[in-house]
Write a structure and sequence with these properties.
The complex is a heterodimer of chains A (263) and B (258). Chain A is 32% helix and 25% strand. By secondary structure, chain A is an alpha/beta fold. Chain A contains eight helices and eleven strands. Chain A is globular. The two termini of chain A are 19 Å apart. In chain A, strand 2 (18-28) and strand 3 form a beta hairpin. Chain B contains eleven helices and no strands. In chain B, helix 1 (2-17) packs across helix 5 (93-127), helix 2 packs antiparallel against helix 3 and helix 6 (132-159) runs parallel beside helix 11. Classes of the chains: A alpha/beta (263), B mainly alpha (258). At the A-B interface, helix 1, strand 7, helix 2 and helix 4 of A face helix 1 and helix 4 of B.
Chain lengths: 263, 258
């Protein structure tokens, strides 16, 4: 079934910051017979500068696989993906992005400051700018007072915040967040939401996958709904809600063809 | 190079913040000092046995540090998922491997300097003389041998999933080479074909780590070996290390991380 395009945020002459073209990702199992599992099937989408783009889908829909392709963790079977017009296979495509994984684990023997300094060096941030940049992101995520403590002493919420700090260290133009509020308490979730809004107000582009539809409805400009590896719908949140005459959660369930009582 | 050095600095930090190195150093020091306090036949001049024991302990400790550190690098990155935020940055897998190698190898070098300094203090305190050139050659060749060991273990770490199995397999291979490597050609001539050919092929293929074992130079205070031979051995180790690192990159570059 082709994706139901509602509307796009595309303005005339605007170039997408993230572009996925006819992407197919297949996994082969290692068992005898090598069964092929199609994780993503002919996915095409575009994300434009300044957008907050929600990438939705039930478990196993192919969201994390798509994110993994964008970051070069998983090879593409067919099709291509581009970030800032550079194929994601090229590491330089990741120079202007920030990534927050779903489960954040960092080098526990390092302090927050050492971790951020390490990542800043990989981004080749000039030595003189590293210190002020670290101060800025640690203040932003509220970890300024814990900067000299080893990460192994951090609570889960603090680890999520250091994750956000490392994602922001290079002042990225595109942020890729994979389930950013997963496992956070209500205050942590609110902080992440505020952070996304703040980044949006600064003109940054945010691409994030989430299960939390209420959260998506609050912060996203556009969404794409993925189910069983295929794009089922894409468009503005308001247009989806309008089209299905219900809230985003119910619209989502209708798009993926879920009927209560039937799995 | 910047990325590789950044990764290397993290590996070195990890080594000195873990207890492994300190435990091995303290053990080596205690055993050496304990043996040094004994007197055989009331002869204070017998120091060779002490130097041999100390160097053997240094070799065992260095191998444990080299294999233990390098075997866990990439598997630990995957298991702890630290590899995801790292490779989401502009760093290639080749740079990651180069950084891990450099970090482990430099960390081994630092550990060797501490161990050999201790050994030097013990030797000088007993013999009141110091064969500096031989001492330097022993340390230098030992370090390059560890370069081959680290590269080989890194290759194992992208082939075998568990660091423990990789560490065990690598240690077995390394000990086999050190103990049997020099005899393989003699064994080959006594065997019938095709085994003779197989053993000969193994003899010429494996890195002869035993060539780097020049402990006798410092134990017996012999003159240093010809410096050209030392340079040749360095190039030999570099060639094998590069080969193992290239193989590691070939395996790892297309390996899905999830």
């Amino acid at each position: 079934m082709p994706a139901q395009a509602v509307t796009t945020a595309k303005l005339p002459g605007m170039k997408p910051i993230l572009k996925i073209e006819d992407l197919v990702v297949e996994y082969r199992t290692r068992e005898f017979g090598q069964r092929v599992t199609v994780a993503v099937n002919r996915l095409s989408l575009e994300v434009f500068p300044g957008e907050v783009f929600g990438f939705l889908g039930p478990n196993g829909a192919g969201k994390t696989t798509t994110v993994n392709v964008l970051l070069g963790f998983v090879p593409v079977t067919r099709g291509a993906a581009y970030i800032f017009n550079v194929n994601v296979r090229d590491p330089i495509a990741r120079q202007r992005i920030g990534y927050l994984p779903e489960l954040t684990y960092y080098y526990k023997f390092l302090t927050a400051e050492e971790l951020l300094r390490f990542y800043a060096r990989i981004f080749r941030i000039p030595r003189a700018e590293i210190g002020p940049r670290i101060d800025e992101v640690l203040k932003l995520v509220g970890l300024d007072t814990a900067r000299k403590r080893p990460i192994k002493t951090y609570s889960k919420g603090m680890q999520q915040r250091i994750g956000l700090a490392q994602a922001l260290i290079n002042e990225p133009d595109l942020l890729i967040l994979d389930e950013p509020t997963s496992g956070l308490d209500p205050i942590g979730r609110m902080n992440v939401r505020e952070m996304i809004q703040r980044l949006k107000s600064k003109g940054k582009t945010v691409f994030f996958s989430s299960h939390e539809l209420g959260e998506v409805e609050t912060v996203c400009d556009r969404v794409a709904i993925l189910h069983q590896g295929e794009l089922k719908a894409t468009g503005r949140v308001s247009d989806l809600v309008e089209k299905y005459k219900c809230n985003l959660e119910q619209a989502f369930l209708k798009v993926i063809g879920y009927e209560p009582g039937h799995e | 190079m910047n990325n590789a050095l950044s990764v290397a600095s993290i590996v070195i930090k990890e080594l000195y913040r873990r207890k492994d190195f300190y435990v091995l150093f303290v053990l080596t020091a205690i055993i050496t000092l304990l043996m040094g306090s004994l007197h055989f036949f009331n002869d204070d001049r017998i120091v060779r046995y002490l130097k041999e024991i100390c160097l053997l302990l240094i070799w065992i400790s260095a191998l444990a540090i080299a294999v233990g550190t390098s075997a866990r690098q990439i598997p630990a990155e995957r298991e702890n998922r630290t590899i995801f935020p790292l490779l989401a940055k502009p760093i290639t897998r080749g740079q990651l491997i180069a950084g891990k190698f450099l970090g482990c190898w430099l960390a081994c070098g630092l550990a060797l300097i501490v161990f050999y300094f201790f050994f030097g203090v013990i030797s000088v305190s007993r013999e009141h003389q110091w064969a500096a050139a031989s001492f330097f050659q022993a340390l230098w060749l030992h370090w390059w041998m560890l370069g081959v060991v680290v590269a080989m273990t890194l290759l194992g770490s992208v082939v075998f999933a568990a660091p423990s199995s990789n560490g065990t397999i690598c240690l077995l291979i390394i000990l086999s080479i050190l103990l049997l490597g020099r005899h393989l050609n003699k064994v080959a001539v006594q065997l019938a074909e095709p085994m003779s050919g197989v053993v000969s092929a193994v003899y010429f293929a494996v890195p002869h780590l035993e060539l780097f074992d020049v402990r006798d130079l410092v134990v017996h205070n012999w003159d240093p070996i010809n410096w050209l031979i030392c340079v040749g051995a360095t190039l030999y180790a570099a060639a094998y290390a590069i080969f193992f690192l290239f193989a590691t990159w070939l395996v790892f570059r297309r390996q899905p991380l999830v």
